[in-house]
Model the fold of this input.
Amino acid sequence: MSYQTKLHSFHIPVLGTGYTLDTPVNVAHFGISSVISVVDDVLIEKMREMYSKKFDLPFQSITDAIDDFRAKRITAYLNLVDKIVKSKFEELKATLQKKSTELEKFIDMLPDMSTVKQEYLKHINEFGQSSKLNQWIQKNLKPGSIDINIMTKLDKENYKGNDKLPIEYNDAHAALRGFALSDLESSIVLSAGMNPRLSSYFESFEDFYPTPDGYLKKQIIIKVSDYRSALIQGKFFAKKGLWVSEYRIESGLNCGGHAFATDGYLMGPILEEFKNSRESLLHETFQMFQQALKAKNRPYPETPPEMRITAQGGVGTSQEHDFLLENYNLDSIGWGTPFLLVPEATNVDEGTLDLLCKAKEEDLYLSGISPLGVPFNSVRNNSKGIEKEEKIRNGKPGAACIKKYLALYADASGKPTCTASRTYQRKKIQELQEKNLSPAEYEKEYKKIVEKECLCLGLAASTLKVHNIPKEGGSDGVTICPGPNLAYFSRRMTLKEMIDHIYGRINVIERTDRPNLFVKELSLYVDNLKQQISNEVTPIAKAHAKRLETFKKNLFEGIAYYKELFFKNDKLQNFVSETDLTELAKLENSLKDVEITIAL
Done:
């Protein structure tokens, strides 16, 4: 489905492996686009079985004894979701004659300024529930896109017995193949950086190439943190005759899940650069794209395909939503973390939902629990963390490594292992005991080892609970990864309430002290810089000091950009408050006080 047909100015990004796994089933028939994670094919297979039974559809298990089972599970599940969404959407359109509330809900949730909404109201006033209105509905109403996400670095090698399988059977490669061979007409979102071998694998699938009339059945979206990364990746794909249809900009720290901090580059200046360089990015990549298609003797478009720029990370008010769209000419805004409080849209069990509703700033933190070694957003007192601490107290740290999706480190035999696994942690603790460290040093290093958490089970547990599917590996502890923005949302919401909030029809935020998203992100980066410095051995080695100085310099440049933006832009009356301006000045002064002591 072409992006031009999408009816909303927001999308729901991927939220962990399970939280949005079936979100399209819940929201796509209302025209809302969302993103599925395809990391966990075991969970995917269980969800396919559950939904097949729920909708009385045939189900045949795809066991791990079947060749290419991972890709086949993903293809089968995506086809099932596609079928269910199409069926629900057809039912919704058919309710016109039944005077059902579903169609009214679809229209009511659209933005008030939506042309489609205004035309519908005009048609129903002029023609009533007539065949003309029905024809208009068939032509103009579309379901939301069922997009999928792949973390490019989760590309573990796989084995059959002791024999390593070809690269095509690596986790990310198989996931890509699962999507590419599905019936979906949608997009694949690539996150967590560049994987050249995976990116090259796109060339193997026909659906990523344009048809003679320029249509792309499957589109490529890359999640980026800055313009340079977008240009490099866009060119990489273009040289292969593959088009990047969307560059999805995400805040490095003011987001959920894994946090990939930039070197002090802030979201505002990044968006400004994309705005100013958009046409250059389009034409530069299009020339390469066109030439590559010609060289492959493939059909090529005479004019550039659609290229979208979207953003996500920390957006929390309709004023922020509207400002980002208008000031930076964006095509859509991602709203992730707040949707964790919308049971109609995401899989959050009752206990975890209650925890999220009560969470404050101090409860939301960047942790070291991820086996990937990347900072990971977490919330204190989540049930998986409590379960982990109990094991540590009992002298049994680590988890049984059942799924192995994050088993990315080679053990002594060369086989992949996970740093959250019981086997790995036992070995590392034994090595630590042999170092004869002081009690303080030992405790510090010990905590680093046992802090790692089994995300494979933790991120799936809530979905299993919501759908009454038996727990995995004897554990029902839940890991959840909301962004800092959650602190300002304090109650569960209906889907309509959340959308009405996004479009400014209501306000669900009860607190009056929520900072502007740019100011909040800046505060997170200033704290991050201070933390990086505190982690260094003083005086700091020249190479590290140079990087930290660059980080600090980029933050000052970002502050200068915000000062100009906030004081010279007359559109900002509802976007930034006097409190935000005061906080901006405080953060600038705080940054000035940051000292980086360089080794001679």
